[in-house]
Design a protein that fits this description.
Blueprint lengths: L1 H26 L6 E5 L4 H8 L7 E6 L11 E5 L12 E7 L8 H14 E9 L5 E2 L4 E2 L6 H7 L4 H6 L3 H10 L5 H7 L4 E7 L2 E8 L2
Length: 213
């Protein structure tokens, strides 16, 4: 099972490298851009340096947890709620968010985060897993997210995630409440003026990216 998780990390690194390069291309990020990373961490901004991309003038990482890792120079960490951000309207050139909005659990909270992203930044780039992809990315298990919640609760006990992490029954309940994948149509409603990109793997829709130009 650990080999599956290690393969997942390698695959994630590949897709994230492609994704940040595409974000730079589409959004025109350069050394004068101010960026708000909503719900992120140090990973992408170390990746930017590793790929030799121009580092933004300022990166603010907003997360609901205390600082994790050691973000590179030029990054500031702020602990705050993505659905209620402590920033002025249009304060940032770009709001960037990768695999975060599906963790807010409810439609209301996801809509609140989307509204805040549109408020605090002139443009945005928001990625989230596509529920049409057969493998649920948080549990590394096929089809589990297509099941009704009562059956999903039982099935999660036998997911790759559970077999590796050995979650308590309460942790399973917490994850059921936390993770809500967003269909493409709903994402368009949350970001009404966006372009929706579909990131594919083996021809299947793996991720959705809403961005404004």
């Amino acid at each position: 099972m650990l080999e599956i998780f290690n393969a997942k990390r390698v695959g994630s690194s590949y897709f994230r490298s492609r994704r940040i390069a595409l974000c730079y291309e589409k959004m025109g990020i350069n050394s004068s851009t101010t960026v708000l990373d909503v719900g992120g961490g140090e990973y992408f901004w170390r990746l930017v340096k590793d790929l030799g991309l121009p580092f933004p003038a300022r990166v603010v990482i907003l997360n609901n947890t205390e600082k994790r890792g050691n973000p590179p120079e030029g990054c500031t960490w702020i602990t705050a709620d993505a659905a209620n951000m402590p920033f002025a309207d249009g304060q940032f050139d770009l709001a960037f968010s990768n695999s975060v909005i599906e963790h807010l659990g409810t439609v209301a909270q996801q809509c609140a985060m989307a509204s805040e992203i549109r408020r605090v930044a002139k443009r945005y780039w928001v990625q989230t897993p596509d529920p049409r992809f057969p493998v649920e990315p948080h549990y590394s298990t096929p089809f589990v997210h297509w099941l009704p919640k009562p059956i999903r609760r039982y099935a999660l006990r036998f997911s790759v995630w559970a077999l590796v992490k050995h979650p308590t029954p309460q942790k399973i309940e917490d994850m059921l409440a936390e993770i809500r994948l967003i269909p493409r149509g709903e994402l368009r409603v949350m970001f009404p003026n966006s372009t929706i990109l579909v990131e594919r793997f083996a021809g299947l829709p793996k991720s959705l990216i809403a961005f404004s130009s």
